[in-house]
Amino acid sequence: MAEGRDDLVRIDVTGVAHPVGETARVRLQGRSGSFHVLPAPPQLVVMRQAAGEGVDSRTCLLSGEIRAPGVLCDVASFLGVTPHRGELVVLDHGASRSVYVDAGYVVGARSSVASERLGEVLYGHGVLDEQQVTACQELATKNHLRTGEAAVQLGFVGRERLFELMAVQIQEIFHATLLVGGGAFYFLESFDESELEARHRLSIATLVRDGVRRMHETRFFSARIPSPLHIPVAAGTTPPSEPELQPVYAAMDGARSIADVGRALGMGEFDVTRAVFQLAQSGFAAIRPPRLRPKAAVDVYNAAIALLLRELDAIDQGDGVRAQLARRVASTPHLAQVLDGAGPADDGTLDESRVATNVTRAPDARGTEDGLGRWLHEHASYALFLARPHLTRAQARTAEGTPPSPVSQLVTGMLAPIAPPDGPATEGGS
């Protein structure tokens, strides 16, 4: 977890707590009431809400901080060999995930991350299109339904297929939970069955094994296929001999992205990525960068740079990095051209509309549009290069001996949609 003054609380000699930062104040406001102060090591303060009407009285059997991706594998493996029944809650930079465990099996899961919600899973597997997802959300809101039930009522999906994809959603949430690189986890004893949209029975041991395999494979995939928005293109006219690769090869029309191929075939992004990687390794496919419109590319950049500068501002190092970025823009003609009059704002973000206008006015508008994502990725990567020493020193002062800050990994992941692909079978441009 990133540590700074924003989430700091000061306890004076009289025992009165004073929130120093805005995050700390908001968190304390959300927990107004009476609490018991539980025994804890000197460096920790642990409190439990006093019993009362509507208070969740479940016991917290396990809890801890998350300092690196994959550390929850050990926690999950432990839960997989115990008879415990409960809810594993993982909090990560504003995101919340819950995995419901019953005697070594995952029976359900839910997530606040938009891409992991059921509507997006149905969209990602080609069951719903964008308009149908919107229709399901509107009906669910109007009639107080869950998204899956709304999709069934509208006739978009049968109950059997819906049940299958709910299991897929659980797996995706579980694997995303294992990859959380910074935050905190809590395992609460028991759970309310009404929290489950449908009860499944997925072996934790199998899910952890698959999750570890995914982590290792993703490291190889990402060098050639940075994001599901990148476009696989068939190389040559002879299809591969492997039957499991032939459907993916046939679906690569030079316009579909990895995500689009998955929707066309009803496959998950990871399975399509693995198949495309194998095709690229064998010379049957090349990878082209995504054709993001200027506003979409700027959106990717803005999200990453805002997070990075927010972390730097927390340690009073943001202004120095801003100044060096400004000098780089001034000395880089193509950046100066597309960013003219587009900011940046105080949080580092650019005016996407102004950038889009600058692109259309460029002498080579098509070439400028094709290069924008790469240029923004290089600029953000330079910002990350400047930021790393400051982040490393700050962490060394606050938590000596802890693993590296997850900020670099988060920013790198956020920039993936505009990252240029790597590898000998890669084509630049389209």
Overview of the molecule:
With about 425 residues, the protein is an alpha+beta fold. It has 16 helices and twelve strands. It has helices at about 20-30, 70-80, 120-125, 130-145, 145-155, 160-180, 205-225, 245-250, 260-265, 270-280, 295-315, 320-330, 335-340, 350-360, 365-400, 405-415, and strands at about 10, 15-20, 35-40, 45-50, 60-65, 85-90, 95-100, 105-110, 185-190, 200-205, 230-235, 285-290. The chain has a six-stranded antiparallel β-sheet. A two-stranded antiparallel sheet has the order 1-2. The chain has a two-stranded antiparallel ribbon with strand order 3-4. Strand 1 (about 10) and strand 2 (about 15-20) form a beta hairpin. It is globular and about 65 Å long.
What structural category do the secondary elements indicate? alpha+beta
Q: Going across the biggest sheet, name each strand in turn.
A: 5-9-6-7-8-10
The overall strand count is 12
Helices and strands, in order, run as EEHEEEHEEEHHHHEEHEHHHEHHHHHH
How many helices? The count is 16
Task: Write down the overall geometry.
Answer: globular
Q: Share of helix among residues?
A: 40-55%
Described by strand count, sense and barrel closure, the largest sheet is:
6 strands, antiparallel
Strand content: 5-15%
Span of the ends, CA to CA: 40 Å
Overall mean confidence score, pLDDT: 89
Backbone CA Rg? 24 Å
